[in-house]
Design goal:
Number of strands: 18
Radius of gyration: 23 Å
Largest sheet: 8 strands, antiparallel
Helix content: 25-40%
Strand content: 15-25%
Amino acid sequence: MKTNIFFITAALLATILSSCSRQAANTPQQLTYGADVSDAFYTERLPLIDSAFQHYVDCGYMPHAVTMVVHNGRVVHNKAFGWRDIENKIPCRTDDIFRIASQSKAISVIALMTLFEEGKFQLDEPIKKYIPEYADPQVLVSYDNKTGNYTTRPAARDITIRHLITHTSGICYDGVFDKILRQKGVAGHNTLDSITLKDNVEKIALVPLKHDPGDAFTYSYNIDVLGRLAEILSGKDFYNFIKERVLDPCDMHDTYFHVPQEKAERVVKLYSYKKNITDAEASTLPHGTAYEGAARGGLRLSDSELFQTFPYAGAGTFCSPSAGMCGTIEDYAKFCQMILNGGTFNNHRVIGRKTLEMMQKNGVGNMRGEIGFGMAWDVFTPENAHNTIVSEGSMRWGGMFGSDYIMDPKEHLIVLMYVNNMPNLSGYNPKTLMHNVTYQALR
């Protein structure tokens, strides 16, 4: 009898230890380079990532790219292609700093939700409770393009924090709303001027809504408003708040709103790809020309001083939680691994597991058609499965300058692709390209 008890106890202990070992393997606290990944990937198929991206660089469609694939914390692939600076023939490196634009949102929302976990706010509270400028939301009725005059009506309901976090508040920056935003002096996501997040958010409150809060999905400045909420509740400016809550715990030491001067040379130059250029223009292109059908196109240095220089120039007083950050691809991989780990990385608990589970659920119904939206990212629903090689339940977002991420809980997989090419009018889609050439290699 004693022998049986011994074997039963030993078996139970082995089961517990095995379970703990599996859990530890699925919650890696660091990224590991050089590990054997043949259990998860056909390693002979991984070079297809290299050949695909090198092809687009060689053809002149893409100035540069950095790609990264992580499986259970193991770095499967991390390469750089093309040029950080075409004109001066400076090669792109894996530790180069890119404008990540709307990828800022996920970092900002995670930081905000740590305050939710502390009981500092609840999701269905009206934002006017904290930012009184939003006490009387108005919905646009008519707009006169000639005079810039417009009429409004009172909104049917208050804007709540949930409306902001799911982009259903009605705040809009497209079409006539862009004109009204300019009239009110809203700076946008990037500026070289000496303003603060508080200044900008209070001006956004002066602009009428596109629709009643909760009635539709309208992607806009919502996360900037929530960033101001975080400042109010934490008593810190947004960069120091996000640094304390997310960047430092995740060991993300190359991610900034304003890149320090000693790192400014690592910021890749911003390029554009445009079609229908003349022969004279084509002859000046530093990387040759590319063709698509009958239209000649090519890369050129972006002529936007703002977008080209905001990472390291200007007053440096404004932080856009929606789209103002710059950083390395490795830093963002650490952030993504923290999400897949259920909220831990670098032996820090950043956010709770159940909070993340809530954030990964589709919060907008069918407002976006077949693809859902959680509290910071696309949610790949069953209805959208026929459109993509990526697993159902995955989370994805990107930035307007060309960057993109996938977090795939089913495959324990992170897929990242960074490029700064805006506008990209070549017709190719580097984001989908990265998804396809990565997933084809999975066992």
